[in-house]
Amino acid sequence: MDQIRQAALELERAHKNLEVAVTAERARGRSWADIGRTLGVSRQAAFKRFGKINTPEGDTLMPRPVHHLKQTAQRFFTLVSEGQEDLAMAMLNPNVREELNWDVISQVWQTCLEEAGTLEHFSDTFITHPQGTSAIAQAGEPEQILGTAVVVTTLEQEAGSTTGRIAFDGDDLITGILYLNPEAPLDPLPF
Q1: What is the rounded distance in angstroms from the CA atom of residue 178 to the CA atom of residue 98?
Q2: pLDDT at residue 161, as a whole number
Q3: Which CA distances in Å does 136 have to 41, 48, 151, 168, 183?
């Protein structure tokens, strides 16, 4: 267990050192494209992971922790598969509940059931940004992200699988849900 604790501490230090290094490079005038290229990600992915925004009101928006969103997304898909309307709908941003109502969500899930059967478990879950099809960082998932975060997971079912994507706003409420055939092209995605 000591090795695990030590490795976890080293990983935490590495994440903090990376944040300090990115901040220093930005202060030296490096672009998000340069930083993204160095990290092996897009400039948008680098910005969403390390950037900050000064709003017209003078507030500073900073990246927020997102590691918990993988479990939140899996919980949502589980609630839908169990038909727990009230709990599932409470996870949606109120502004999208009219279009993303329970009838729409349950009808789409019914189609998934007809194609691949009952939900058994999840695999290959990661966090990315809108239009992202892989984890934001190659060297591990982001601890935090600015703006919309997207969780992508494979819903392993009895006779196949479905790719699920959930977009979360800055308050960690769901603003978009996609169920995709894992063999379908991923471009273009609405989020």
Answers
A1: 16
A2: 95
A3: 7, 9, 11, 15, 21
The per-residue pLDDT for range 47-75, each reduced to its tens digit, is: 878 887 776 777 777 778 888 999 999 99
The domain spans of the chain are: 2-52, 69-180
Say if residues 88 and 80 touch (Cβ distance below 8 Å): yes
CA distance 4 to 101: 44
**Which residues have C-beta within 8 Å of that of residue 73, sequence separation ≥ 6?**
125, 151, 153, 164, 166, 168
Name the nearest CA neighbour of 76 among 91, 94, 93.
91
Residues 120 and 156 sit within 8 Å (Cβ to Cβ): yes
User: Encoding tokens for residue 98?
Assistant: 């009219």
Place of tokens 């006779």: 159
The CATH code for residues 69-180 is 3.10.450.590
- 129-165 b/e (C-beta count within 10 Å ≥ 16 → b): bbebeebbbeeebbbbbbbebbbbbebbbeeebbbbb
